[in-house]
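S2.1 Query sequence (Probable enoyl-CoA hydratase echA8)
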Amino acid sequence: MTEYETIIVETRGRVGWITLNRPEALNALNSTLIREIVTAGKEFDHDPDIGAIVLTGSEKAFAAGADIKEIADKGYIDMYLNDPFKSWADFGRLRTPAIAAVAGFALGGGCELAMMCDIILAADTAKFGQPEINLGVIPGIGGTQRLPRAIGKYKAAELVLTGRMMGAEEAERSGLVSRIVPAAELLDEAAKVAEIIASKSLPVVYAAKDALQAAQESTLAEGLRFEKQAFAATFALDDQTEGMGAFREKRTPEFSHR
Ligand code: CO8
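Output structure tokens follow.
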């Protein structure tokens, strides 16, 4: 098992847990933290015994964004040619569904990291925002692209252009979060959702995630064509035979992930 400095990594049954752990900096995403999250995510993704990932922070902060102290003195070439954030794309490409369990601040890169996950569960204390404009920069790992797709152009523009934070209620109303739960129940609720997903057939879960992803990245016609093929392909799986057979026999299916 890889040793980590800035995150805590655990396996509970078929669920992989990644807890950001830089409390002194409100989980600001420095280069070590980025490398570690991506490494842990990929390790879980390569493990066929893991069916879902939960990514969480502390009560005060999911993540307060890129580590401003680490990037403040960088120049254009550092950011463009030596892009310190390029490995994030690998996190966005994980096949295993990821649930962001967000309490406290999810700002800048923290909000963008939550948006790379498939489900965002928010504690009632959660605060989301893209405050980069206040620092003289713009969002750099998807904020200007995923936020408008999640909450619409006009609300996203207000947040990105003013740097205003929004609370959990507003985030849920806008479609950024899947559900709000009381802060004390956040991790239990994330565990329940993750365990449900991890109990399904892994190849079918991958197919569903791929098709949902296609909805974000393609036209309706392309997405529907992709779904048609992916749907038909599930009929090649033992788990389709098992799932439908179990329904006919009025029993719980036992998926073999084949
Ligand atoms: N970077 C570095 N250190 C941070 C960060 C950060 N983003 N956020 C908080 N900290 C540190 C503070 O400096 C402080 O440390 P110290 O005591 O040593 O000075 C400690 O965390 C606690 O923070 P505060 O005392 O400020 O706590 P408050 O409760 O008063 O305020 C806030 C909390 C409102 C969250 C405040 O800390 C804040 O505004 N933080 C910055 C938020 C921000 O602007 N985020 C965007 C960063 S830019 C970005 O994310 C660009 C994305 C591009 C790609 C990113 C890929 C990783």
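The beta strands are 7-12, 15-20, 52-56, 61-63, 98-102, 105-107, 119-123, 127-129, 166-167, 179-181. The CA atoms of residues 162 and 252 lie 51 Å apart.
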